[in-house]
Design a protein that fits this description.
Distance between the termini: 88 Å
Helix content: 10-25%
Largest sheet: 9 strands, antiparallel
Strand content: 35-45%
Number of helices: 2
Oligomer: single chain
Order of helices and strands: HEEHEEEEEEEEEEEEEE
Number of strands: 16
Radius of gyration: 24 Å
């Protein structure tokens, strides 16, 4: 009887050790697969110096799965695919930076970006929140085929006091330079219908001061509705030089 018990105990122990070894092997294989996925994923990132220092992320050159490529490039994403850039289909198609993306350090917050995009339909839109929380709340811009609106603290969008209207850009590549400054608790939102390098930094083509805003975040967030983001440049210093700076 003792021999039988010893045999059964040895068999069970050996089975347990084999299972443990198999579990560790599976865990290692999964980690190796994840590492390989991230190693082969990502988007092209380059430094820029004009009109000020920043980083350009080229989404047309992303590799691998969309979520893995964006994670490797410093973004969190939801309902995004890759096809000549970041493709979004509705209000749940979002990306935001995983770290602070302000264009000022200390004091009131400022955020500055350049965005290259294509709106695919007449009801397409892109919401650019800067600065943004991880829930995509904050001040910013609602980009439409023929104009750009402001985003207020309640998330609604409406025309700017100084608007800019252009011919419909449906299916055409377009570029905007956008900036938001926190001033006396409110937002000064402004921008240019051009690249930031080509902008007249002392004169804004569209703007509004005193926009009610929540400055609880420090990221850059995008909601992509029936549109493609080809690239975004995030600047580390502010671009605009005119206005009621605090």
């Amino acid at each position: 009887m003792k021999f039988v018990k010893l045999f059964l105990f040895s068999t069970i122990l050996l089975s347990f050790l084999n299972c443990a070894e198999l579990f560790q092997k599976d865990k290692k294989d999964n980690n190796d697969a994840l590492f390989a996925l991230l190693l082969n994923s990502g988007c092209t990132i380059s430094d820029v110096s004009s009109p000020t220092s920043g980083r350009k992320i080229d989404f047309t050159a992303c590799r691998g799965d969309a979520n893995a490529a964006l994670a490797a490039s410093g973004f969190s994403s939801s309902s995004i695919s890759l096809s000549g850039g970041l493709v979004g289909t509705g209000s749940t198609s979002t990306v935001y930076t995983n770290s602070s993306s302000l264009s000022s350090l200390g004091g009131d917050k400022k955020a500055s970006i350049e965005i290259v995009y294509v709106l695919s339909q007449g009801d397409s839109s892109i919401t650019a929140i800067l600065p943004s929380t991880t829930n995509l709340s904050g001040p910013g811009f609602h980009i439409l085929p023929s104009t750009v609106n402001k985003i207020a603290s309640n998330g609604s969008n409406s025309a700017l006091n100084t608007p800019r209207v252009w011919s419909s850009s449906v299916s055409a590549e377009k570029i905007l330079c956008l900036e938001v400054h926190q001033e006396s608790g409110n937002a000064h939102v402004f921008g240019w219908e051009s690249s930031c390098a080509a902008a007249n930094r002392g004169t804004y083509q569209f703007e509004e001061d005193g926009v009610a805003a929540d400055f609880g975040g420090d990221r850059i967030g995008l909601r992509i509705n029936k549109a493609t983001i080809k690239s975004i440049t995030i600047y580390s210093a502010n671009i605009g030089t005119s206005g009621s700076f605090q």
